[in-house]
Amino acid sequence: MAEKTSEKKNEELTIDELFEKIDAAAGALEDSEVSLEKSYELYKEGMDLLKLCSEKIDAVEKKVKVINESNNSLEVFDEDEV
To answer: Could you tell me the pTM of the whole model?
Structure first.
C-alpha cells in the first residue's frame, strides 16, 4: 500500500525533480557500503523513475506536436536535435 502512495507522489513530480531523484539513487548506488538488497531497491527505484520520466517527456512531445499542428505549421519534434 505504501508503494502506491510513493508512485502517486512520483507522478506529481516535474521532469527536473525526477532527474534529481534518479541522480540521487545513482549516487547512492556508487557507495561501496550499500548492501546488495539496498542496491537492488535503488536500482528498481531508478528504473521506475526513468520509465515515469520517459512517459512525461513523451507527453510533452505530443503536446508540442499538437500546438504546432494547431498553428498550421507541422513541425514534428526531432529527438536527434536534443
So the answer is: 0.69
C-alpha cell at 37: 538488497
CA distance 23 to 75: 32
The Cβ of residue 25 has, within 10 Å, a number of other Cβ atoms equal to 19
Show the beta-strand stretches assigned E in the chain: none
How is the chain split into domains, by residue range?
2-81
User: Which helix (H) or strand (E) element contains residue 2?
Assistant: helix 2-11
Contact by Cβ (8 Å): 79, 71 = no
pLDDT in tens, 2-28: 455 555 588 889 999 999 999 999 999
For residue 13, the number of C-alpha atoms closer than 13 Å in the C-beta half-sphere is 19
